[in-house]
Design goal:
The complex is a heterodimer of chains A (263) and B (258). Chain A is globular. In chain A, the strands form two sheets. A six-stranded mixed beta sheet of chain A has the order 6-7-8-3-9-10, sandwiched between helices. In chain A, strands 2-1-4-5 form a four-stranded antiparallel beta sheet, covered by helices on one side. Chain A has helices at residues 50-58, 80-87, 105-109, 111-116, 121-134, 151-164, 181-198, 209-215, 242-249; strands at 12-21, 24-34, 39-43, 65-70, 73-74, 90-93, 169-173, 201-206, 218-223, 226-232. Chain A has one domain (36-59, 79-249): 3-Layer(aba) Sandwich (Rossmann fold). In chain A, strand 4 (65-70) and strand 5 (73-74) form a beta hairpin. In chain A, helix 5 (121-134) crosses helix 6 (151-164). With 263 residues, chain A is an alpha/beta fold. The relative contact order of chain A is 0.17. Chain B has 258 residues and is an all-alpha fold. Chain B has one domain. Classes of the chains: A alpha/beta (263), B mainly alpha (258). The A-B interface holds A 55, 58-60, 80, 84, 87-88, 90-92, 94-96, 98-102, 111-112, 115-118, 161, 165 and B 36, 38, 117, 121, 124-126, 128-129, 131-136, 140.
């Protein structure tokens, strides 16, 4: 659906990004482009560098070399203040939801509005309750604390928080991990809906193929710190790439050997 | 050669840790004085450090004052110096025992809690989440704790001073049969402002150290529950040692006669 108009630079572009922790090379020359309004799903096994890639784009980690551009603007050398401004464009749903457990649910959802954009609390609460409605949570949930919610509900709150200040780019870090298949599908549906409603650019990392098929416009596969295949979501079953085939069909035998050590 | 290599490695690790701590401290201090500030967070920490530590610090001070009176009575009576007890209690509590024991108790209570809370936030990605919500974790988490530690410990120690002297008074009057009026008179007679002030300066430094160690170890914790546990231990141990070292240094600055 999303051919990038040539006049616009890609929303996110990574060129030859490297990142190593000590002797352990995690990103080994990542090249990736995400078009405006596109939903890209990055698939790959555990410990192949998916999360590190997202954290490099956000600036939570700084890459050793290479270029990361957002809206055509180089971001690897940003000063902290400029970085904070840039992060206004981003929202992120973390794997474990990463809700602030000392704050009520509505305060979590409104956090970016109150602290980041200095909105009055009452107004932010109204927006938070509206956003919670968008992910199927009633206003009474807002008065609870995150520890009182189930895993699926926490994911919903995390999603509401990620979309609360209407970001241009949303990252989803393994959004369905740890959920039952029904709740996983509910979350997938919500992700698709929220991204559409916002018209946002989305990058999801996952190893859940059902989720990937549902969310993706385009799919990229990461293996040993490189993007080894990208293609349209419909082409994933006949990619002609043995690595992708093995991953998509979940075979133990194939060119991919399991890593023993975590990153 | 193996011995030299091991020594060198240990020295390099020490230098690296020192540099990391210095940079953390510098960054944290610079965020303490630059807006935006988070008054809600500062207030929350102040209540936690100042108000909820009162029972622990108060009890510590009370029994310290009581035991001081008892001990110095049994010691001083050997050379008929019982009259100096009130002065000894007042000087010891305000100069040394109030700030040091108060600081150590707060290190156990607050330093551990800070390291555990921030460490858990680190391993559950809540600190990363702060950044993605355009909130600087140094400003939101670290600066309020440092400010609260620095501000509240002197107040806490001031209360501890009063309770400690009162503990000595209780033992002196009800157990050792001193005249209440003369005990109080003796307490004031040789007490100078510098005794109390030096104790409060110590308290401010100790409060800063406790918060700094709690935040530093929590912020750099790694790898799940075990990592948070290690961070908590390190926070308490390093804060306690820093308190004892700085206690000596500050005493030297205030009272060295040479």
């Amino acid at each position: 659906m999303s051919q990038v108009p040539p006049a616009h630079p890609p929303k996110i572009s990574l060129k030859n990004v490297h990142k190593a922790f000590g002797p352990k090379v995690v990103l080994n020359g990542i090249d990736l482009e995400v078009g405006r309004g596109e939903s890209l799903v990055v698939i790959g096994g555990s410990g192949t560098g998916k999360s590190v890639m997202l954290k490099c784009i956000l600036g939570l980690l700084s890459p050793d070399s290479g270029s990361i551009r957002v809206d055509g603007e180089e971001t690897t050398k940003l000063r902290p203040r400029e970085r904070e401004k840039l992060l206004h464009k981003f929202g992120m749903l973390f794997q474990g939801a990463a809700l602030f457990d000392s704050l009520k649910v509505w305060e979590n959802v409104a956090f970016g509005l109150i602290q980041g954009e200095h909105m009055p609390r009452a107004k932010a609460k109204d927006i938070a309750i509206a956003k919670m409605g968008a992910v199927g949570l009633g206003p009474e949930v807002g008065e609870l604390f995150p520890s009182e919610l189930s895993g699926g509900m926490q994911k919903r709150v995390g999603l509401a928080r990620a979309i609360a200040d209407e970001p241009e780019i949303i990252f989803f870090d393994e959004p369905t991990t740890g959920l039952d298949p029904i709740m996983a599908d509910v979350i997938n549906e919500l992700i698709v809906k929220c991204v559409k409603d916002l018209g946002a650019t989305a990058v999801t990392i996952t190893h859940d193929m059902a989720s990937a098929r549902k969310i993706a416009d385009r799919v990229a596969m990461i293996y040993q710190g490189r993007i080894i295949w990208t293609g349209h979501a419909n082409d994933i079953d006949n990619s002609g790439n043995p690595y992708v085939d093995q991953f998509v069909h979940g075979r133990g035998e194939g060119p991919i050997k399991m890593q023993v050590r975590a990153l | 050669m193996g011995f030299l290599a091991a020594t060198g490695r240990a020295f390099l690790i020490f230098l690296e840790a020192t540099g990391k701590l210095a940079m953390f401290t510098g960054a944290a201090l610079s965020h303490c004085v630059r807006p935006p500030f988070y008054p809600r967070q500062i207030l929350r920490q102040m209540i936690d450090i100042g108000y909820y530590s009162l029972p622990v610090v108060g009890l510590t001070a009370l029994f310290t004052g009581m035991v001081l009176a008892l001990q110095s009575y049994s010691g001083f009576s050997r050379f008929q110096a019982e009259g100096a007890i009130a002065t000894v209690v007042a000087l010891s509590v305000t100069r040394e025992l109030g700030p040091v024991l108060g600081g150590l108790m707060v290190a156990g209570r607050i330093g551990a809690a800070m390291a555990a809370e921030i460490g858990t936030m680190r391993v559950t990605e809540q600190i990363d989440a702060l950044s993605t919500l355009s909130t600087n974790p140094f400003k939101y988490l670290v600066a309020p704790r440092l400010i609260a530690g620095l501000a509240m410990l002197p107040l806490l120690v001031l209360v501890a001073d009063i309770i400690g002297v009162f503990g000595g008074f209780l033992v002196g009057v009800y157990r050792l049969d001193f005249n209440p009026a003369s005990y109080i008179g003796r307490t004031w007679e040789f007490l100078e402002p510098i005794d109390v002030i030096s104790g409060l300066v110590k308290a401010a430094v100790f409060g800063f150290m406790v918060s700094l160690m709690g935040c530093y170890h929590g912020y750099h914790s790694r790898g799940g529950a075990q990592g948070v546990g290690a961070a908590t231990t390190n926070a308490v141990v390093s804060a306690s040692i820093l308190i004892l070292v700085w206690n000596y240094l500050i005493t030297g600055i205030f009272f060295s006669t040479k």
